[in-house]
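Sequence in, structure out.
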Amino acid sequence: MARLLVVDDESGIRSALAQVFEYEGHEVEQAEDGHQGIQLAERFRPDVIFLDVKMPGLDGLDVLARLREKDPSTLVVMISGHGTIDTAVEATRKGAYDFLEKPLDTDRLLVTLRRALELRGLTQSMADLRSQIESRYEIVGTSYAIRQVLERIEKVAPTDARVLITGENGTGKELVARAIHRLSARKEEPFVEVNCAAIPSELIESALFGHIKGSFTGAVADRAGKFEQADGGTLFLDEIGDMSRDAQAKVLRALEQGVVTRVGGSQAIEVDVRVIAATNKDLAQQIDGGDFREDLYYRLNVVPVHLPPLRERREDIPMLIQHFTDIMTQREGMSPRSFETAAIDKLRALSWPGNIRELRNTVERLLILAGGETVRVEDVDLLATGRSAPGAIGGELLSSDSFSDFKDGAERAYIQQKLRENDWNVAETARRIDMPRSNLYKKIEKYGLVREG
């Protein structure tokens, strides 16, 4: 059962909607104008609000703006008897979940409600998604962009269609892959992940397809590859754009024929695997450059899912901050903490090249190092990444006993941040910071850097 609020100046519309929703087993409150709607929303804490656009006194779009300002996670469905494209666009821009025109169609109304509740995590499918994802954070947000991702996950998960997930580092591509697996008929079978960028090119074929004892130096026993390990389940090929051309050809054969052959062997082994691939690279550009097979691209890209960077869904940042705060205070046994509005606004204004992963690390840093029960804007200026506040730097560095310690600390923080931004892909990080890969490995070893989580 969900809590629903209907705000409309027409009593007939309110009563009709309440009757439909109560018949479905939901708890419904009604408000006859915008001011009463805002008051009820604060007291009743509805899961979804159905809000009329044209009302005397306070206009529905103004009510929407005030509701979203108080709670960015509020789900509001706008309803109007004078619907126009401009009004719908304006409502969406101000954060409306959906826009329905009068006279209201009951089927469309209930479908919209169901999807809104799935986003809230109140239906079983989304509850399963949120409870079973093996991750340190969930797919969180109510922005239009993230709603589109969740809806696509729901549609493609029950099928066996191959999925290509694209997006910058730190946007949550692995989360999407795991969500698709957990909502599929294969959820009880293995989910096997392969980071194609982390495996040397000379070993990728062995990792994927297995090998026969004695097939190469170090092959001291027969070993099954990731395709065989994932038989019946899902194989997640992360950073597929970093795979060698030779390995690409064998992956293509496995997809086309459903068989793999171990390195050094001749027996074809049948496998039943759903493949989900992900990349932060432009595969079309790689195809043009001869680095990626066009035929493999079309085999993988049956259903594309693009994850937007955090800077394109800034309205989700307050909810993500609260989500990470709740997780970290529970995990570390901290007393409840909060962020003042100015601090949240400051964090929303940052560029976040490392996306959600970077935001999570920043929230954790602020919770650990900021004093007091509330994280203030001054804490953000001092302890956040410093991109929006020139000269801002972590307090732990400023407290270094010597200039040498400061330099080491700054170098360590810089390398760790760049590794995070590039999803700990050492080769890509070395390229971006213009450092020989061997030197970067030495720095990682020197400072004892390890991937978090």
